[in-house]
Amino acid sequence: MPAAAVIVNRAGPDDDGVGARRQLASKRAGLVGTAFAGSVGEMAGLPLARVAVFWCFSVRDKGSGDMDEGKAAPRFLTTREVASMLRVKERKVYDLAAAGEIPHRRMTGKLLFPAEELEAWIEGSHTVEDADRPAVIAGSHDPLLEWAIHQSECGLATLFNGSLDGLASFTNREAMASGLHLQADDGWNVSFVREAGARTSVLLSWAVRSRGLLLAPELEGRVRRLADLAGMRIVMRQPGAGARKLFEAWLEEDGLSAVELRMTTELARTEAAAAAAVAGGEADAAAGIESMARSYRLAFLPRMEERFDLLVDRRGFFTAPFQTFMKFAAGPAFRAKAGAMGGYDVSQLGEVRWLSR
């Protein structure tokens, strides 16, 4: 299994240390690889020290005298491995991650550290963070957002596959922005963004939306609560979609389980797809937003007001495509469209809700 070793050298008066690269071999560990030396400084709590971090690229078989090539270094490192590299306690690594001072990801509740970004951080380089992201808006689907992107002719592409998928795409630098509507105990979106370790980014308000149940027209007045949907066909959103997480939370609040309801086999991957399934007779109900109920002439049972935000890369915010998009969204045509679609409050559009360090 690939391993990591650390060499700590005191910086002398003639040793700049930063960005130096050395080829190292460790007979003791049976490893060969490249070391990246850099000034960690006060961020890692190691004053006057230079840390050379050693990722192995191949492992020597204990029974052979030669190195076996071809085993790639891991893309992500554990908290223990990072602590060993920096010669600090694991608690210090957790503190650095909580403060947003070290590149990290939170996956299934576990902290992982991307090796490439960690290398740049240790070297004091900003190469990874400064690299341009693709001009893509990922995350949750919002009909007003989709309309504005196309109508503004800004050139931004879209990849709508749910809030959690979009958040992962953003933290992996695969998108310039991501739409989110994730509810936590302390409000909307902020805690998810913070825990994901989003860096050099800003969370902007897009809209407050009215969310509830989309119902076939003939069910208007007959369905007043989730329990009334027993035996009816319900189209679900994909795992990781904010709408699905909210619907599952509603079931728990009302003391119901998914097995008590009749789910369709096909998933709806956008707000429009959920509404189309009900309007087309493929389902009797779906979780959705008021604007889609109006567009598809469906009955609507409101349940909550939700906040839809855009997580945006700070550098990407100032690119021509995103500036064109935001300028259009600040204009009268956008506000008129939001009013016509219904179920939107865009009075806080563009307000900063969270800013990374």
List keywords for this structure.
357 residues; 13 helices; 2 domains; single chain; D-Maltodextrin-Binding Protein, domain 2
How would you sum up this structure, described in words?
By secondary structure, the protein is α+β, with helices and mostly antiparallel strands. The radius of gyration is 25 Å and the shape is globular. It has 13 helices and 20 strands. It has helices at residues 79-86, 90-98, 115-123, 127-130, 143-152, 163-171, 190-195, 242-253, 271-279, 290-295, 314-317, 320-329, 332-341, and strands spanning 4-10, 21-26, 31-39, 49-60, 67-68, 76-77, 105-107, 110-114, 136-139, 157-160, 177-180, 183-184, 187-188, 201-215, 233-235, 262-263, 285-289, 299-313, 344-345, 352-355. The two termini are 35 Å apart.
The secondary-structure class comes to: alpha+beta
Q: Which architecture of the largest domain does the CATH hierarchy give at level 2?
A: 3-Layer(aba) Sandwich
The helix content is: 25-40%
- What best-fitting shape do the alpha-carbon axes yield? globular
- Cα distance, first to last residue? 35 Å
Number of structural units classed as domains? 2
Tell me the name of the CATH class of the largest domain. Answer: Alpha Beta
The strand count comes to 20
Average pLDDT, rounded to a whole number, is: 80
Helical stretch tally:
13
Rg from alpha-carbon coordinates: 25 Å
Relative strand content = 25-35%
**The CATH topology of the largest domain:** D-Maltodextrin-Binding Protein, domain 2
Q: Describe the sheet with the most strands.
A: 10 strands, mixed
Q: Which ranges are low-confidence, i.e. pLDDT below 50, for 5 or more consecutive residues?
A: 1-69
